[in-house]
Amino acid sequence: MEGSVQAENRTVGLLGATSIGIGGMVGGGIFAVLGEAVSVAHGATAVAFLLAGIVALLTSYSYAKLSVNFQSGGGTVVFIDTAFGRELFSGTVSLILWLSYLVTIALYAVAFGSYAQTFFGADTVPWLKHLLISLAILLPAAVNLLNAAIVSEAEAVIVGIKLALLTVIIVSGASFVDPTRLSPVHWGSPFSIIAAGMVIFVAYEGFELIANAAGEIKNPVRNLPMAFYASVLLVILLYVLIAIVTVGTVPETQLMSARDYALAVAAKPALGQVGFTIVAIAALFATFSAINATIYGNARLGFILAKEGELPERMERKAWNRPLEGVVITVALSLLMANLVDLASIAIIGSASFLLIFAITNASAVKMSRRIGAHRWVSGTACLACVGALLTLLVRTYQARPAAIWIFLSFLLVALVFELTYGRMSRQGFLRRKTIGPVT
After folding, report:
1. Rounded to the nearest 10 degrees, how much is the dihedral formed by the CA atoms of 247, 249, 254, 257?
2. Does position 315 have pLDDT exceeding 50, yes or no?
3. Which of 105, 169, 266, 360 is least enclosed by beta carbons within 10 angstroms?
4. Cα separation of 350 and 86, whole Å?
């Protein structure tokens, strides 16, 4: 086992590790993408969530094997660097990962704006939503710079509230489900169902955060795999049940008219306007905490990449023991995307980015299968599943939202060009790099 950490530094048990994975997935994703899934899969929305969950579960196997063997705060970056070396390819992928987290911040911010706007009525001025979206990013950024511990210490409580609330929606709405709305008669085509699952795949991406905490987890050989599998399985069950209750209790026309805040609408049949309001408030807390955590993590990922020569040295600078410029750059780019790109396109770009990253991570596990004790066929199947899912998503997006394709491709191009230029000039450019060690 490489990059091991002394036992006295391990303070997170199985429950805590599983909570990291659940908290990473049940962040703002389900609040943001539920309506989009219904718009594509219709009555088969639960099937779409199940398919996306299967891709995530297969990928969690590779993450479990890699995390046990490379227990580092660098997580995905370390896995890919170790497998492929510190070269042009791995450097580009690291930058794509950094950009992908910017997309998730934008996704959560747009969801925050959509739910917040429900308190002001449908006829509010257009600029109000942009103001709310911007505040959703600027306020967590201020918290990060002043005292990130305020929200991070409360994260376990926020995760508990989100899970309790979603459970209440499921239990209270179960008796209102109309099975005919879930009938295959109301399903989309097989291709659209698969595509719907991949559009909302971003709602599953957070399980990989367990890898970043691997060095803090007790009995990692046992607890890391169990945490990965348990968190993904529980979230699959949760999402499928939420989809069944949503589609089964609310007419699709109502869901489409409130696509950006569909989960709040799903609470109305059983809980009325009070339920709608409670879910909307919970969505604000959930997306706010998710934005805060992602800004925190992405600024530090930028700090790590800057130390390794991937990003400019300015992002290594700290103020108040925090990567100040990393936070500022993260916030600025997230603000641009959140205010210029619609929610559906952001979800597609985010899902495509993480499917690409996960395909490469699975390929890393295949390449190092003997070294990490992994079954090549499992990681290979996961890699093919991610590639197939990505291609399905891109074809569907080209047909429905071609602009999102160009934004996604521009992300890849920016990362490649940046690495080709800055990577060559940096003090640790890709032509002179060595495999990265554990990141602290």
Report:
1. -50
2. no
3. 360
4. 25
Nearest to 202 by CA among 389, 339, 60, 33: 33
pLDDT digits (tens, 9 = 90+) for 247-261: 999 888 888 888 888
- Residue 387, both tokens: 């590639």
Torsion-angle region of 435 (φ positive above 0: left; ψ -120 to 50: alpha; else: beta): beta
Residue 238 is encoded by which pair of tokens?
Answer: 């949760």
Report the distance separating Cα 199 and Cα 417, nearest Å.
27
- Residue pLDDT, tens place only, 134-157: 998 888 878 766 655 554 555 667
Nearest to 105 by CA among 146, 150, 139, 72: 139
One-letter amino acid at 356 equals L
pTM score, two decimals?
0.85
Strand-pairing partners, residue 322, are: 319
| Domains along the chain with CATH numbers | 10-425 (1.20.1740.10)
CA distance 392 to 395: 5
